[in-house]
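Many introductory courses stop at the sequence. We go one step further.
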Amino acid sequence: MSTAPDPKLLTWADVAKRRHPAASATIAYGDDAMQKVDLWLPRGKGPFPVVVMVHGGCWQTEIADRRLMDWVADDLRNDGIAVWNIDYRGVDRAGGGYPGTFADAAAATDRLATVATRYHLDTSRVVAVGHSAGGHLALWLAGRPRLPVASPLHRSHPLPIAHVVSLGGLPDLAATAASPDNGCGTEIVAKLVGTGRADPYADTSVPRLLPLGVPQDLVNGREDKIIPFRMGVS
């Protein structure tokens, strides 16, 4: 049995003290300041596998934007993986909420296909990785082929997602809205899915899009005080 002390856990303050890395390129997919993607491109000729990175922040721009993921994007780049780090308008920003937040995430992801040849990106090896609210959006991106045809979010040929990793995500929006301890607030979910619709979860909540048809890894912490462990179940 090892007598070595437990390793010191890395805190956000520890991460923020690290050198802030720079992306290889920034690409717009719309006119709003938030409609941007940072590309983190490895050295070499490629073609490179790609992680579509989706930041969290309770779907609110005021809490977080894509810069939150810069350190992990840099680490992946150094491991030979291209990162397509997307931003989107949150529910607290003009144009965000329903359908804007979802439409932004979709448009940002589909923009990858238009520059794949230029940057030597392998669109057959795209993994969506999201944290917290971004975990929900990453899973939702994989479920886009199953969106109802009548939904304003439906597109005929969305970029295929081969695998999804949700880190501390909230895939089931109906369950999240029914849980006052969800960490983001029930009113935020209402802004996200839209009100005045007969079935606001039909094209927004991941369980309604199952089966996604791709492998998924959902990772949630039992001691997470913001997103309770049970929120990872969809």
